Amino acid sequence: MTWDSRGAAPTVIPAFYYTDTLRYLITEGRQEIRRRLSDAPKMLRQTELLPQFSSLGEIKGDPAWDLFKSYLDKIEYQIAGIVSRHTPSFWFHLYRRIRPTLSSVQESKTDDVTVVLVRRIAELSFAKHGDLERTADLGPIIETRLETFLDGTWYNATALSLGSKLKAKKRYREIKQMCQIVMTDFRASDLYDLFGIEGLCYEYWWASAVMRSVGKGSTIRFDARRNPPVSYKDDVAHPFCFDLYDCRTEGGTGFYTRMGTWFDEPDDSALSGENCRDKLYFAALVPNPALTEHLIWDSDTGEMREAQAMANFGIGTFPIAKFATENAFMGPDFKEKHGLELNAVLFAVWAASFFCVFTGLIARLPTHKARMARTMTNWNNLSYRGYSMVAYNIDQFATEAIWWARHLNLSDIPSLKDAKSAFDFISLTKAGQKSIGLWSGGKRPILIPSLGGFMVDLAAIVPFLYLIFFGLKKSKQVGGLSFEEATRDALRSRGFEIVLQGKLKWVEGGPREVDAAVRLGEKLILIECFSYELPLDYEIGKPSIFERRKKFIADKIEQARTLAERISQNPKGTNFDVSWAKEIDWRVVSPFVEFAWGLNEPFFDEPGLPRVMQIEELLNNISDGKMPAKSCLEMLKTMRGLPMADQWH
Question: Are 570 and 601 contacting, i.e. CB atoms less than 8 angstroms apart?
Fold first, then answer.
């Protein structure tokens, strides 16, 4: 890693073993990369989708959805044919070294959300279709030869970068002493294949986006004048609703599962070995990264420095014990389905993240200075690649994890047998490959077999936990109460007084219930919570799934609206008195950003605040006045007055 000399916050220019080679190949192969990204997916669309689609005319509902679901399978077949040429760890190794952006040749979106979704599809394909029986495409650099290293391109590319072959030979001797893991069976065509995979994954994302619109009521048709050649007519949901939804799904700080359990925002992400027993580390992709200030380890001075760097991942933490507590009610069902204690699996996830950040080699270094240098160097590397290589098999992983857990005084440490089973559960296996769905986001493995040990993917931690309860059914009563209590705890933690909770009674008429009501000056906000599982096929718009969710949300909206109306008319009951309130407002709160299929009441109030809010949206709004999707508010108000029916877009 080199530093420039400009001021107190220099720009960090990372120099990895592959840097010059990949830059050289990308420059030399621009036309081939463009073809792989764009032409091949377009040809697939022309041959596999459009002949059927164009003959159908205008279609909607299940026929349209089924057509595109079949197309997803055909795209995946093409992806699998390329990915199966290498191990999953090889593809992860190479892909994590490509800046997380999308090319301008892509015909639709290249925004942050799209980058994340396309990358997710690609990395799931590596795990699902990579060859787990192959063993020789990654290995120690000591096993390589200068003349053939990285398909012979390393020598030429590095000589070109440094100015001479003599300097390139010297650089090779230097990096060969570092004992790092490199691509030992790399061909230039592998890099171009990788862009081919990304182009197909973009096509997969585009097709699933069409399915999402179909599932929410859009009619679609083939239009050869358009690029992409699909146009929409939205008679159920206003077309701008999709833009609002996408804008609202960006960001977020709390943690929730697909099951609908949620707990408050994670703790700080400071790197500290002292509190490792309370922390679960995770890596989050930084799409379209820019130069920003970071604390960077300077190996020359042995200290942290402020610097400008372009990192691909942000490293954060959250309390694993809190996750275990908030989801403890799922434990019995989890054990019944998987034959494993939920806490044993969470222990394995904690240990994997611990060893990813504080690798086993660190503990064996002789001095604190050496251990710190190794830890911080690994931390820097994690910010670029999001994973670490750990030379433990399952037995060693379990044994070491239990030793460290006892050393750190963890409670509820599983037996060695249960720990081994739990580590196997979070690992990628041939049998487990069959359960991975590119469209569903999982099951995402955390441990990827490589070189007799594992590639520990810190970026898989959050996706794994997000889907950890897939296939289970929570008790509606217990699950709902859990989210209600989590919401009230979050409100209290921010200093809000909950003035109403539970049953409200009047002299006349039946009682009603409110989950929470908060006073803001002379304004009362009534909060109705619901925790409704988000099915896996919700995001790809299965029509029947959305129809059921629409009905449920509409009922919740009506429940909250009528309660606010009744309290406005009768602000004093037998067990409450809010006659002080000059304004009574209401919100429905979910762990998820829920799709709103209209732009006016009862979906948005006059200023543009959603009536159905994700919990963090609510907390941010009543704390600081923040408006969800603020950049879209003016457009929302404009679009409210425009006709929707019979308009193609």
Answer: no
Residue that has been written with the tokens 């897939």 in this structure: 470
How far apart CA 4 and CA 541 sit, in angstroms, is 50
What does pTM read for this prediction?
0.91
What would the mean pLDDT of 361-379 be, rounded to a whole number? 75
What pLDDT digit, counting tens, does each position of 73-96 carry?
999 999 999 999 999 999 999 999
Q: Residue 619 has which token pair? A: 């907390």
Q: Which amino acid is at 377?
A: T
Give the C-alpha separation, 144 to 294, whole Å.
34
Task: Round to whole Å and give the CA distance between 130 and 479.
Answer: 37
CB-CB neighbours of 73 under 10 Å: 11
Compute and round to an integer the Cα radius of gyration of the chain: 27
CB 606 within 8 A of CB 635: no
Tokens of 235: 């008679």
Q: How far apart are CA 383 and CA 371, in angstroms?
A: 19
Instruction: Select from 314, 445, 291 the least CA-distant residue to 384.
Output: 314
pLDDT in tens, 211-263: 998 988 888 888 777 777 888 888 778 888 888 998 888 765 568 888 888 87
Calculate the CA dihedral of residues 328, 538, 110, 614 and round it to 10 degrees: -50
Q: What pLDDT does 267 receive?
A: 46
The encoded tokens of residue 143 equal 């096993």
Residues 492 and 270 sit within 8 Å (Cβ to Cβ): no
Distance CA 80, CA 197 (A): 9
